[in-house]
C-alpha cells in the first residue's frame, strides 16, 4: 500500500447528502489532509432506482458547499478512474469469475420465495436465519435453472475459527465463523452488493483507511474474509458513532428533515458552523466548542473519536452558527447574505450599507435567513409594519411629544452620522429631564417597527435620513 494515506468517502446517492455522510466525509478529509494524503470521492450508485443524476449532483453540491474538496473522483479523474461503481461492472465480474474458479465463491439458484420460507421458519423457532448452503457444492445448474440467472455467493470457511480486526475507534472486535454465512456478492444482473463492490474498489484504488458509521461494523467481517480469499491486505478501519435525532432515534431521511445537509444551507446555517457541529457529534478536543477547520486539521485523530452516539441538538447548532456569524469577516457574511436578500426581492449587491449592516445585526441574528429578514423588512424597503403592542406603549401620549421633539432635532442635523444621531437622543432627553430610553425607544419603534435593534444612532444611519424621517412622520400621524 502507498505510504501516504488514501482515504475515501463512498456515498450512495439517494436524494441528498446526509448529515452522517457529511461527518464521515469530514473525518476522512481531515485524515487525508493532515497527513499529506489523498481524499477520494467514489459514488456507489448501484441502487439504480434512486441513484439518479440529480441525486449524484446533490452529493457533489453538499460537499462543495461544505468545502470538502476531493482530490480524485467525479470531475477530477485520477489514475484509478472510473469513480462510479456502475462504470466498473466488468471489474467486479472479472474478480468474481476468479473467485468461482478458485472454489471461493459459487452460483446460488435459490429463489427469493424459497429463502423467505426458510427465513420465516427460522423466526418461528426464535433463531436467526442463515443461508444453509443449499447450492454450495453444485457443479451445474439444477434442472430448469440457468447459470446466468444465479446470484453469486461467497463461500465462508467451514469449521471453527473467528475473524478479528483492530478498529481505530472501537478497538479489537471479533466474530466467530459460526455467526457468518455464505453472503451474496453479486446479483444475477452483475450488480455488486455492498460488501463485495467496496472491497474490490478499495483494493484497486489503494485505499489505506475506511472510516464509516458503526452500522457497518458487521459488514467488516465478511469483507475481511474476502480480502483474505483474494490474498489482499485490508485497509485500516474506523467505525464512527451513530448520530441520533432529537427523539434519540437514528437520524434518518424518513423521520428527520434535519438529516439533509442542504436544508441547513437553505435555513441560513454557515458551512463552518455545520462542520463544527457535526464533528462534535462523535469527536472532541478537551472542552473546545468553537473549532475552526485549521484547528480540526491540527487536532483530529481517530483515537479521540467516541463510542457513544451523538444526539442532534438544534439549539447548539444555532448557538454555534451565531458564533461563526461573529467570527467570520463582515465581507464574507455580507456576500453570503446576498442570496437570502435576493430571495426576498431585495437586490443590493455592491450596496455600501451591507457590511455595516452585518456588523450591526450579527449579534442579534442566529442565521443568515434571520439576518436577511430583518435587513429586508427594516433597512431595504420603504415603510415598515409596526408591532401594535410596541406602538401602543411607545407611540402614544407623552412618548409622541418626545418623538416630535426628537424629529425636530434630527431634521436640524447638518450631518447624518452615528455620533450626531446619538447626540440628539442625549440632548432631547436632558432637555426633557427623562432617561435616554424614553427618547430612543419611540424613535426605534417608529423607525424599525419594534423595540429591538442595534444602537439608535447606528439604526438611523442604516435606515437612511429620508426614510427614517418618513417613518417618524408616519408614526406621529398616528397620534
Task: Describe the 3D structure.
This protein has 479 residues and is mainly α. Helix content is 46%, strand content 9%. It contains 19 helices and 11 strands. The protein has a 3-stranded antiparallel beta sheet. The protein has a two-stranded parallel ribbon with strand order 1-2. A two-stranded antiparallel sheet has the order 5-6. The longest helix is centred in the first third of the chain and has 16 residues, at 19-34. The radius of gyration is 31 Å and the shape is elongated.
Provide a short characterization of the protein structure.
The chain is mostly helical.
- Low-confidence segments: none
Report the sheet-strand fraction.
5-15%
What is the rounded distance between the termini?
A: 81 Å
Q: What's the total number of strands? A: 11
- Helix and strand element order: EHEHHEHEEEEHEHEEHHHEHHHHHHHHHH
Main pleated-sheet profile: 3 strands, antiparallel
Q: Give the overall average pLDDT.
A: 94
What's the arrangement of strands in the largest beta sheet?
3-4-7
Amino acid at each position: 500500500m502507498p505510504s501516504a494515506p488514501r482515504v475515501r468517502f463512498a456515498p450512495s446517492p439517494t436524494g441528498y447528502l446526509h448529515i452522517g455522510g457529511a461527518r464521515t466525509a469530514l473525518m476522512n478529509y481531515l485524515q487525508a489532509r493532515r497527513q499529506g494524503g489523498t481524499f477520494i470521492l467514489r459514488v456507489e450508485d448501484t441502487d439504480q432506482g434512486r441513484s439518479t443524476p440529480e441525486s449524484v449532483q446533490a452529493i457533489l453540491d453538499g460537499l462543495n458547499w461544505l468545502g470538502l474538496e476531493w482530490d480524485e473522483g467525479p470531475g477530477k479523474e485520477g489514475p484509478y478512474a472510473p469513480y462510479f461503481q456502475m462504470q466498473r461492472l466488468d471489474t467486479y465480474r472479472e474478480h468474481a469469475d476468479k473467485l468461482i474458479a478458485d472454489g471461493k465463491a459459487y452460483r446460488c439458484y435459490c429463489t427469493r420465495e424459497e429463502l423467505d420460507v426458510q427465513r420465516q421458519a427460522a423466526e418461528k423457532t426464535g433463531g436467526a436465519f442463515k443461508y444453509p448452503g443449499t447450492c454450495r457444492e453444485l457443479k451445474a445448474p439444477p434442472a430448469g435453472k440457468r447459470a446466468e440467472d444465479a446470484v453469486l455467493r461467497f463461500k465462508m470457511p467451514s469449521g471453527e475459527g473467528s475473524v478479528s480486526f483492530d478498529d481505530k475507534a472501537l478497538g479489537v472486535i471479533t466474530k466467530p465463523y459460526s455467526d457468518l454465512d455464505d453472503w451474496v456478492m453479486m446479483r444475477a444482473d452483475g450488480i455488486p452488493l455492498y460488501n463485495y463492490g467496496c472491497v474490490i474498489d478499495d483494493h484497486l484504488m489503494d485505499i489505506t483507511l475506511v472510516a464509516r458509521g458503526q452500522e457497518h461494523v458487521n459488514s467488516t467481517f465478511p469483507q475481511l474474509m474476502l480480502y483474505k480469499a483474494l490474498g489482499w491486505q485490508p485497509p485500516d478501519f474506523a467505525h464512527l458513532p451513530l448520530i441520533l435525532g432529537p427523539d434519540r432515534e437514528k437520524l434518518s431521511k424518513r423521520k428527520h428533515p434535519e438529516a439533509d445537509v442542504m436544508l441547513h444551507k437553505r435555513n441560513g446555517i454557515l458551512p463552518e458552523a455545520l462542520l463544527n457541529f457535526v464533528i462534535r457529534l462523535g469527536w472532541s478536543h478537551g472542552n473546545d466548542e468553537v473549532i475552526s477547520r485549521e484547528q480540526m486539521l491540527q487536532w483530529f485523530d481517530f483515537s479521540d473519536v467516541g463510542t457513544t452516539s451523538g444526539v442532534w441538538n438544534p439549539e447548539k447548532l444555532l448557538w454555534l452558527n451565531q458564533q461563526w456569524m461573529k467570527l467570520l469577516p463582515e465581507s464574507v457574511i455580507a456576500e453570503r447574505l446576498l442570496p437570502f436578500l435576493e430571495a426576498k426581492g431585495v437586490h443590493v449587491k455592491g450596496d455600501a450599507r451591507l457590511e455595516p449592516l452585518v456588523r450591526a445585526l450579527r449579534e442579534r441574528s442566529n442565521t443568515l435567513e434571520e439576518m436577511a429578514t430583518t435587513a429586508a423588512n427594516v433597512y431595504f424597503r420603504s415603510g415598515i409594519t409596526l408591532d401594535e403592542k410596541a406602538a401602543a406603549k411607545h407611540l402614544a401620549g407623552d412618548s409622541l411629544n418626545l418623538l416630535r421633539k426628537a424629529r425636530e432635532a434630527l431634521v436640524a442635523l447638518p450631518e447624518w452620522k452615528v455620533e450626531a444621531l446619538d447626540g440628539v437622543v442625549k440632548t432631547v432627553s436632558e432637555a426633557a429631564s427623562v432617561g435616554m430610553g424614553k427618547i430612543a425607544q419611540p424613535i426605534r419603534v417608529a423607525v424599525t417597527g419594534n423595540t429591538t435593534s442595534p444602537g439608535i444612532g447606528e439604526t438611523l444611519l442604516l435606515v437612511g435620513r429620508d426614510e427614517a424621517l418618513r417613518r417618524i412622520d408616519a408614526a406621529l400621524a398616528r397620534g
